[in-house]
Each structure stands twice: as C-alpha cells, then as structure tokens.
Amino acid sequence: MKIRWKINNSGSDRLLNNREIYSTNLPHRAIAVYMYLCDRAGMEGSCFPAINTIATDLKMSRSTVKRALGDLEKAKYLRHERRYRQSGGNSSNLYLLNRLP
Fold first, then answer.
1. What is the pLDDT of residues 53-75, one digit of tens each?
2. Fold that domain 2-97 belongs to in CATH
3. pLDDT tens, residue by residue, 15-45
4. 40: phi then psi, degrees, rounded to nearest 5
C-alpha cells in the first residue's frame, strides 16, 4: 500500500510505504498507531482521532496508545498540536505526520 501526500505544506510530495515503517526500530505498538494515523490522514498528512478512538479501534489500552504516540514523537514520525474550543476547553489533538526521518 502506497500513499502520496503533500506533507505539512512543504510543497514536495513524499511517497510513504509500509516497508519503510516496518524496517524501523519502533515497537510494534508505535507501528500500529502510525499505520492507523496514516489511514485516517487527509491530503496534508493530518488527522485528529481521540485517544479513546485509537485505543478502541486497535484493541489497545489508552496507556499503550499514549506510549506509542510518545515513541512516534520521539522518533520524529509525528508531532501533535493541542486544540482548544472557543470556550477554552480542551478539544482533540491534531496529529501531523512528518516525512520519514
């Protein structure tokens, strides 16, 4: 499965494929979450699923999903931005998938 994206408005396309992510030293939980986010990302390589949604869909605990997201951020495969409602309350996180390091 290959996905073509224009990532983070950089103007350049990057072809991502499963072999590249599977050949990393990331734990399997991080690979599963990365592939999940890739599947849900739009043309700009961003998505905003809730941690509960990711955990339910992948049949993982919330803690495991959080650890996986931390692994991915540490390895620079993604970054997240907190989003807030107009009232100041928390909203969902925005996940931005980066080019493979």
1. 999 999 999 999 999 999 999 99
2. Arc Repressor Mutant, subunit A (1.10.10)
3. 356 777 888 899 999 999 999 998 998 878 8
4. -100, -5
The pTM assigned to this predicted structure is: 0.79
Buried residues in 63-95 as b, exposed as e (16+ CB within 10 A): ebbebbbebbeebebbeeeeeeeeeeeeeebeb
Half-sphere exposure of residue 6: CA atoms within 13 angstroms, side-chain side: 5
Token pair, residue 64, equals 């495991």
Cα separation, 42 vs 22, whole angstroms: 22
More confident residue, 86 or 70: 70
Q: List the Cα angle 19/53/40 in 5-degree steps.
A: 40
Break the chain into its structural domains and give their ranges. Answer: 2-97
Residue 24: strand, helix, or coil = coil
